[in-house]
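Lesson 9: reading folded outputs for more than one chain in a single document. The general rule is that every protein is listed as its sequence immediately followed by its structure tokens, and records are never interleaved. Here is the first one.
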Amino acid sequence: MRTSVIGCGHLGIPHAAAMAELGHEVLGVDVDQAKVDQLNAGECPIFETGLPELLARHTASGRLRFTTSIREAAGFAELHFIGVGTPIDADGRSYDTAQVYGAIRSLAPHLDRPCTIVGKSTVTVGTTAQVTALAQRLAPAGDRVDVVWNPEFLREGHAVEDTLRPDRIIAGLTTLEAEKAIRAVYAAILDTGVPLCVTDPQTAELAKGAANTFLGLKISYINAVADMCEAAGGDISEIVHILGIDPRIGSGGMRPGIGYGGGCLPKDIRAFTASARQLGADQAADLLRAAEKINESRTDVAMGLITRTLGDQPVKGARVTVWGAAFKPGTNDVRESPALALAQALQQAGATVTIHDPQAVTTAMIRNPEFDYTDDLAASLDAADLVVLATEWAEYQQADPQALVGRPTTPLLIDCRTTLDPETWRAAGWTVTQLGRPGK
């Protein structure tokens, strides 16, 4: 099948490469000529596990290419994926869907034959109906243009894996022809047994917000319990294990830490909370807002632990190394990164901050040039008074604490992601503190 992917960012690039991997001919569209040239050269402008190799393979094979011409995409493809960004709006509570409507306004006037538009971007309930009306009004093909909402459930750092081997595929649609198109484009995935949930557009739109918001609730809940462990002297890791045994709960998504971030969870939870309020579901909105407040408090919780760990030494004037800049491992995305929020709080308190990250130093420097950065793990510790692990990269879990112990002035380490084996580090001479595990 010939497909286009309109919008080449954290969603569009992995989706385009994955569609090529499934055997489709794919044309990616973006307004940034420099990015298009980079992509056509097989070079990936973002880091995502497995993506550089997939992109290089299929730009070389000829299945995947990129352009700035949406007219070319309209003539080329029979199915058009919309993968543009929907950042949070100026009100801080709803999606800015200007790029979605901009893509439809640019594409539709060139659609002169039957085709299917498939929305991947996360949107407010009711958007599909409005997009359908706009596309059919502007397109020469009129009502022969179908619109499907097919929300993505990608975990950044696993976007390629989640596109090629998803847990489920959701398709919100209104016509049999649209369902046929979805079944055709995802045939290779559906043939492996992945379930296809065909529903109405408004259910599909709500499903994405509901899924991400439930994950946010789960993260906020375990962080609240971690605070209780901190106060009572309990061990959050043991509680996660105990809860995880219960098949009604499970341990997935229950890693205590300094909160969720990135380009999806924060905005999706804000928007879903706002939707609940707009729909008159006030108790639901209150519950969701409580989860947001817990997440917003995690920087303060971490700062309290840092202050207690430093003891008589004030935060002001301390030299602190932060391990991690990306909001999670496997990506160089630093949008709403809890690690950078903590670094900012440390700097505002008067600390000198040095940041290390295996992949996100460049993107972090663009967003926060005020910090010192290094991509050398050992050098990041030179003369540090305290090390704070803020992003759970495998590089930190696999580091040799014995080889690093001589670099900081005082080998104090706070594991804000509860991801290290503390006994291994303590045996090498480090003083290790973990959130929710006081004295453990």
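And here is the second record, again sequence then tokens.
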Amino acid sequence: MSNSWSGSRLDLHISFDAAGGRRSGLEAALREAIHQGRLPAGSLLPSTRGLAQELGLSRGTVTAAYDQLVEEGYLTTSPGSGTKVAEVPQRAQAAPERPAPERATPRHDLRPGLPDVTAFPTRAWLASTRRVLTRARPEVFGAGDPQGRIELRRALADYLGRTRGVITTPDRIVVTSGHYQGLGLLSGVLAASGTGTVAVEDPGHNLFREVVQRAGLTTLPLPVDSHGARIEALARHTEAVLLTPSHQYPTGVPLHPGRRQALCAWARSTGGLIVEDDYDGEYRYDRQPVGALQGVAPDHVVYCGTASKTLAPALRLAWMVLPPHLVQPMVQAKQQADLYTETLGQLVLADLVTTHAYDRHIRAARLRYRRRRELLLGRIAAHPGLTAHGVPAGLHTLVTLPSGGRTEDELLASCAHHGVALRGLTELHHHPADSPQGLLIGFAAPSESAYPVALDALFTVLASDGRRRGAARAVTARSKRGPDQFFGSKVDLTCGPVAQ
């Protein structure tokens, strides 16, 4: 039997077994509620008449139950004060499962690939949100479109064509909940269609390599040198290739024009698919950003973009521009995964793009990140032995380490000890044990005021390594290859315009 009572001070759901008698069942239920703390000490119980009416019992049954619990010390009663719960120890219970602790934010965040979220365009986002909500039709608050809101797909088609040279129409765009999801869905679609092997850059983003592998696809390492991915290394049985042609992650070099042409020729002649991850294509500091590869071979390229690097990762908004034959399979995969991406964020982003507030935000970020990169390069140049790699672009700089100093692992551990978070190079290779060592230093994540302090902390650690290296006569480096052999030849593309 279950019911609940409501009094002037107390609401309680109570359930008891009347099989052994209603009075005994009520007594047991009250004892349990007191032991569990659901009836805390001092709680005023309903009158015997009121509780009897609410539980459908006789008043005598409730009175007898109260009297028994008073005798046992669970309740107290006094004239004019009613019946209250006495001080009774609560029964020991298993400690509730604690939620997983949030990932601690490092004191000095120099991890690559992260934007400065303190510069999020809050005012512009609020203004767009107000416009969206003011104009919103009721259907906006209903179930969404698995392909993505048409407003955002139209805005993206115009924006990508204008800024990245992408050739598309809204019907060829699918909006996903982040690039991670999009690549996972695409990998599943490719595996289901019979694709077996995907070439991925080596070094390249290990997280995305794992996404491809989880779909059951075989990954083929595609070596990277000073001209980007070595397209001639594509094997005959390769059916797709995943790469970052505008700004290779992590080396920072763009794909050479000759290799871009060779890659597109490979796709046309073999029917192979190119997956272009344009994760930070908006950020080029010495010239106009290199146009997307998709504009050269739109029927053979899947173009992937994201708001994670331009606005904030928390928005979980990304997009894929697809060849026509992949649109429906991707829409179906998206629907099966999570039905659709959150709608209001799509509409707000669409408004930001169409009002050009998105362009203004990116231009401001580009100037800010360029200054930060130049500050980083100045510190690197003053530190003997370090070599910076890559063109003036993106959100990080790769630095290779001199021989005779601490290993990458040792430097990362020392940085972590001093509260500096960054990333090492070796884990991004297919075979980390035999790979060159280096540090990926992000220059975008800290706030404007925190960035110089973060650099001071980092170069304090690196300076201590330099003193150690100067004092040591001979130290065996973990890697057999030094910076002169990195990418096949020493690369220093840090300053000035680069032919493309």
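What the second record shows: The longest strand covers residues 218-225.
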